[in-house]
Specification:
Chain lengths: ~300, ~300
């Protein structure tokens, strides 16, 4: 009895050790990748944000100079921040509301609804350079599709990408073309709202609107929360459309933050300043994400969670 | 008694009738809205196709003609030759599949570790993994670029492919880990009793059962690598190495006067592979997108 128990115990210990070893072996690609491509570069980038480095001459420690320049003497930093803020403020709420509305309309038992789902999803596949080129042509001030449409109802359309006032609204409009992605996610979550809750509310005399507001919205609020955080992070990192469509113009009216960062790093070779810009971007994104996370107990409902 | 019963029955019927009229109107209204929205979303694509078949002069006629007078199919071969389309396509395909292979292989290995193998460090490491999803790529951009530059990897595909073999991104690991966790753990136990090691469990049990999740990760990866712009822009500066995105972009910026008809034809054909992948994997893809949202 005794020796057997000892063997078993020893065997279990060996199994555990083996499992632990396997864990490290299997997770090694990520662990190594994390060290080489994330943690290491993060530390280097943080250190570089306190240096001047133009690739050709050795880096030079300059303390908080990069940050001081950024906040006090670089108007383009503030311009980039402003442009990115305004874009985020426009595109994120509009995108979330539009995607949710479309998902609600799609969440019906109608014949052929699948065709519509595909149609709405399709544009979100077309991103990057092809989307940018297509929209440059659509937004063409003289013969573009949008201004043609406006002319049909008697409005003379603005110059869009060539107008300091209209370039950001134009890009926000373009971003709405890709609401298919979040729409599918909302649709799935709408289909996960338990029928019995909606029926119970109906029996209690709740109308369509109040059922939607008091049952559906709370039930899908975790998904809204997830999409909100993701789209804030995404919209702070807009690059391709600005790079291809406007090059930040006219008069820096579409100088997105990451475009400005890219220029500092790869056009002006100010690697230290670009790193400092990246850390400020990180701080800004963290700030807004935390803001959403902190606000979440007030409006996100987790099933089974204890209310505090 | 009978009267009361009748009255009671009569009221619901009238109410029902009004309700169903209202419901019918609501449904009709929402169908109209859906159709209008669908048209609005599709019109840009039709516009692209229409422009791609015009002469450049006809493209600038206002008001525009939706159907070109003489559809110019020759725009397509012309567009394909003016931008070295097949060279860029080959580069894009090479990078996409090279990276995709690494992503699926390494993400599934790591996800298996996080879903199935116990370790004291597992939870802490998983939190670190999730935290990296919040980190904007720009923070590591400059040092990673300098590192690849020091390796002498500029103007090679390596910076765009090799990182995929190291975990394939936190998002894919997370997605696969969530899926692996839903598979019954008794399968592993039975295999262990039969003397299987972790790798056999991974390759013979988990992977075959996780095909839908693997397909989802692969399709996401495909779209991500295919559309990537900043990576190729930073690492590739030779025309012979350009991807489709880069090639299209430089065609526009180098030409003073953009030939929009050719441009739209080129855009059309660069989108085409994406649409082919989408339509052939539509079911998996839509389910996969839904999966990501729910698990998130």
């Amino acid at each position: 009895m005794r020796p057997l128990a000892w063997v078993r115990q020893r065997g279990a210990g060996r199994m555990e050790r083996r499992e632990e070893r396997d864990f490290f072996l299997f997770s090694a690609p990520w662990t190594i990748g994390f060290l080489i491509f994330t943690l290491g570069p993060m530390l280097v980038s943080f250190a570089m944000s306190f240096m001047r480095y133009d690739v050709l001459t050795p880096p030079q420690l300059i303390g908080f100079e990069n940050y001081r320049i950024m906040f006090s003497t670089d108007p383009l930093f503030w311009q980039a921040l402003k442009v990115t803020f305004i874009y985020t403020l426009g595109s994120v709420p509009l995108g979330i509301v539009a995607a949710l509305l479309v998902a609600i309309l799609m969440n019906q038992q109608v014949k052929g609804i699948y065709v519509f789902r595909t149609v709405y999803y399709l544009p979100s596949l077309i991103t990057g350079v092809p989307a940018a080129l297509l929209w440059m042509w659509i937004l063409n001030p003289s013969v573009g599709l949008i201004n043609y449409g406006l002319s049909l109802v008697g409005i003379k359309g603005p110059a869009w990408l060539f107008s300091e006032t209209w370039v950001i609204p134009a890009l926000i409009m373009m971003s709405l073309w890709g609401i298919g992605g979040p729409m599918i996610i909302y649709l799935a979550s709408l289909q996960g709202v338990p029928k019995h809750l909606l029926e119970a509310a109906e029996i209690d005399g709740a109308g369509t609107l109040s059922r939607f507001w008091h049952v559906t919205i709370p039930m899908i609020s975790p998904v809204i929360f997830f999409n909100l955080v993701m789209s804030i992070i995404g919209s702070f990192q807009v690059f391709t459309s600005a790079f291809v469509m406007t090059q930040g113009g006219p008069a820096n009216a579409s100088l997105f933050y990451v475009l400005y960062l890219y220029r500092n790093a790869f056009s002006y070779f100010k690697m230290g300043y670009a790193s400092a810009l990246a850390w400020v971007l990180f701080a800004v994104i963290m700030f807004f994400s935390l803001l959403v996370v902190k606000s979440s107990p007030a409006w996100v409902y987790y099933e089974g969670a204890v209310r505090r | 008694m009978t009267g009361m019963r009748l009255a009671r029955r009569a009221r619901p019927i009238g109410w029902l009738a009004r309700r169903s009229v209202r419901q019918f109107l609501l449904r009709a209204l929402s169908l109209v809205l859906i159709t209008l929205g669908g048209i609005v979303l599709l019109v840009p694509l039709l516009w692209m196709i229409s422009t791609s078949l015009k002469t450049n002069a006809e493209a600038f006629i206002f008001p525009p003609r939706w159907i070109p007078r003489h559809p110019l199919w020759s725009n397509y071969p012309l567009a394909l030759t003016t931008i070295d389309y097949f060279l860029y396509l080959r580069n894009t395909v090479f990078i996409t599949f090279g990276a995709l292979l690494g992503q699926v292989l390494s993400a599934s290995l790591v996800a298996f570790a996080f879903a199935r193998l116990r370790s004291r460090f597992r939870d802490a490491m998983f939190i670190v993994l999730l935290a990296t999803m919040m980190l904007p790529g720009q923070v590591t951009l400059v040092p990673v670029y300098l590192m690849f530059r020091a390796f002498g990897w500029l103007n090679t595909f390596l910076p765009l492919i090799v990182p995929a073999y190291f975990g394939g991104g936190a998002f894919s690991i997370f997605l696969l880990r969530q899926f692996f966790s839903t598979l019954p753990v008794e399968l592993d136990d039975a295999a262990k009793i039969d003397g299987c090691g972790s790798f056999t469990i991974y390759s013979r049990i988990i992977l075959p059962l996780a095909k839908p999740a693997l397909a989802t990760v692969a399709i996401f990866g495909f779209f991500g690598y295919w559309n990537d712009f900043m990576g190729p822009l930073i690492y590739l500066s030779k025309n012979s190495l350009y991807t489709l995105s880069l090639g299209l972009q430089f065609y526009v910026s180098s030409e003073g006067q953009v030939q929009w008809n050719l441009m739209m034809a080129a855009t059309c054909v660069s989108i085409l592979p994406l649409l082919v992948v989408f339509f052939s994997a539509q079911r998996t893809f839509v389910q996969g997108v839904a999966l990501t949202g729910l698990k998130g």
